[in-house]
Specification:
The protein is an alpha/beta fold and about 400 residues long. Helix content is about 45%, strand content about 20%. The protein contains 14 helices and 17 strands. Strand 16, helix 13 and strand 17 form a beta-alpha-beta unit. Bound molecules: NADP nicotinamide-adenine-dinucleotide phosphate.
Length: about 400
């Protein structure tokens, strides 16, 4: 048993099923910390984001909450809803931008016993490292009939000889050297500290040469700089007629985005860390989640230089809100990642082991129960209690 100080952590319930899955995650984290350490505990404090913030402060992203997160630098967050189409900007994107959480880390691994479309789902043990602040998510876009779109069309025609159709909405894609290099350095540091085997840069550089192509170039540059002699590229291996990286070396390669999708499905075991720009990273994360059965079981970390936020990969699943049927595993896994970030690795390991054992024993929520026979379908609360019991046993 390690011993040490307590930590103060902020949490935000979010919308939809958020309150239920955050409640579950906090209960499991508290049990794991108590089991792993003597005299250590987490002091939780709620901040309001989303619908609950409207009740407290009259807006969905109040400065009061934002400044608390900035000051404390650590947040366990539930999902937040975003309207599709017009209306307000995504709160999730706004939070990432405000706190400069530039790396989104999503581990994807298989839980024994879960139904998967793959023949050998146990081969899936990946980490998606997604750039989180650049690309089309910077929100620079205009409706086709807006004054701004007309001004841009006029400028492009006059100064660059580019004629755009007047019925097209316009978005601007940005990929910068600074933002690419910093997330690539984080991927390399993550590979070193977590003994990972390879880093694959995912891009569509054959088509978007100066954005996605530049991502490939700058990511290679920064990853190879950071890994130094620990790195070996696919090109270097080919020169030696080898396929496998020598022991102790991290393979660095790249794949064009469409190929990356088919590779992920056909040969998931050949990939380890996938380093992707924002949009590719968003798509590939859900596809990877499907390989292990359900995105409801995935947790993620969003890390910057001065703040870190942990949350489930899934959204608010509004149809399940308040019905005690939501799967809390994603938010529990986010909690385990948060504990690791705090350096409380024993408690994180305790959580992962307990969830593994409960799912393997056939106790699951309705999402995982689909397609399985002989399992016991339980509610969110009952699943949470089963995990707490597994921690204590
Ligand atoms: P979603 O909320 O993740 O739900 C999509 C489907 O995934 C659900 O209908 C359900 O599938 C399944 N699912 C997801 N989480 C589950 C869980 N914990 N337990 C059981 N099943 C789960 O995605 P969405 O419907 O696209 O988005 C809804 C809202 O969430 C949107 O406003 C979106 O903007 C927001 N969102 C927020 C975040 C975030 O805060 N980080 C992330 C993604 C989306 P079945 O219908 O098959 O049962």
């Amino acid at each position: 048993m390690a011993s040490g100080k307590s930590a103060r952590v902020l949490f935000a319930k979010g919308d939809g099923i958020g309150a239920e899955v955050i409640g579950s995650s906090i209960a499991v984290i508290d049990s794991a910390v108590e089991a792993a350490y003597s005299g250590r505990r987490i002091v939780w404090e709620e901040v309001f984001l989303g619908d609950s913030a409207v009740e407290e402060f009259g807006k969905r992203l109040p400065e009061e909450s934002l400044s608390k997160v900035r000051e404390r630098g650590l947040l366990l967050k539930g999902p937040l809803r975003t309207p599709v189409g017009g209306g307000e900007r995504s709160l999730n994107v706004a939070l990432r931008m405000e706190l400069d959480l530039y790396a989104n880390i999503r581990p994807v691994r298989y839980f024994a016993g879960v139904d998967s479309p793959l023949k050998r789902p146990e081969a899936v043990d990946l980490v998606i490292m997604r750039e989180n602040t650049d690309d089309l998510y910077t929100g620079i876009e205009w409706r086709h009939a807006s004054r701004e779109a007309a001004a841009l069309r006029a400028f492009l025609k006059k100064d660059l000889g580019v004629v755009l159709p007047s019925d097209a909405g316009i978005g601007i894609k940005l990929i910068s050297r600074f933002k690419t290099r910093r997330v690539a350095r984080m991927a390399a540091a993550y590979a070193l500290s977590n003994s990972r085997r390879s880093i694959t840069i995912m891009h569509k550089g054959n088509i978007m040469k100066y954005t996605e192509g530049a991502f490939r170039e700058w990511a290679y540059e920064a990853v190879l700089e950071r890994l130094g002699t620990k790195a070996v590229t696919e090109e270097q291996l080919a020169e030696r007629g080898a396929v496998k990286a020598p022991k102790g070396r991290i393979l660095v390669n790249d794949r064009i985005a469409d190929n990356m999708f088919q590779q992920l499905i056909a040969k998931p075991g050949s990939y380890d860390i996938i380093l992707a720009p924002n949009l590719n990273g968003d798509y590939i994360s859900d596809a990877a989640g499907a390989l292990v059965g359900n995105i409801g079981v995935l947790g993620s970390a969003e890390i910057g230089d001065s703040a870190a936020m942990f949350e489930a990969v899934h959204g608010t699943a509004p149809k399940y809100a308040g019905r005690n049927v939501a799967d809390p595993i994603g938010e529990i896994m986010a909690g385990a990642m948060m504990l690791e970030h705090l350096g409380w690795k024993e408690a994180a390991g305790t959580i992962r082991d307990a969830v593994d054992r409960v799912v393997k024993s056939g106790i699951v929520t309705q999402d995982l129960a689909r397609g399985l026979v002989g399992v016991k379908t339980v509610g969110t609360k009952e699943f949470t209690r089963a995990v707490q019991k597994a921690i204590d046993s």
